[in-house]
Design brief:
Layout: E1 4-7, E2 10-13, E3 16-19, E4 22-26, H1 35-42, E5 48-51, H2 66-74, E6 79-83, H3 84-89, E7 101-104, H4 106-115, E8 118-122
Parallel strand pairs: 4-5, 4-8, 5-6, 6-7
Antiparallel strand pairs: 1-2, 2-3
């Protein structure tokens, strides 16, 4: 008999647990929306966050969620990324970003989607 139980971040089947990794994408600015804040409240261990479109403003060291983002990164359980083309389109420079956020290009974006079990879009 096989039992499959969903728990916050794990599937457990016959005493084998597999970490469920989720890539969260946020496309709204934290200066005009609470989407980033809402996403951060459910970010589980092993989950990653990719900021795209206007969401790239969330990568700035002065964004309203900067403190919690830094704390989450410093715990070593989450990775944060920002789409570099979207940064460039908005005239934002890498030196304005939180130091824990890694800029990625479109090829790396695709690789992130492959590396994670699922993608959750926040909008």
């Amino acid at each position: 008999m096989c039992c499959l139980v969903f728990s916050t971040n794990f599937y457990i089947a016959d005493n084998i647990s597999l970490l469920m990794t989720i890539l969260h994408t946020v496309n709204k600015s934290p200066f005009s929306s609470t989407v980033l804040q809402e996403c951060l409240t459910v970010l589980g261990s092993g989950h990653s966050l990719l900021l795209i479109e206007d969401g790239v403003y969330g990568a700035l060291s002065v964004n309203p969620q900067a403190t919690i983002m830094s704390e989450l990164c410093n715990r070593g359980q989450n990775e944060f990324f920002v789409l570099s083309d979207d940064l460039n389109a908005r005239g934002l420079q890498n030196d304005l970003l939180l130091k824990q956020i890694k800029p990625v290009d479109y090829d790396e974006f695709v690789q992130l989607t492959i590396q994670h079990n699922s993608v959750q879009s926040w909008y």
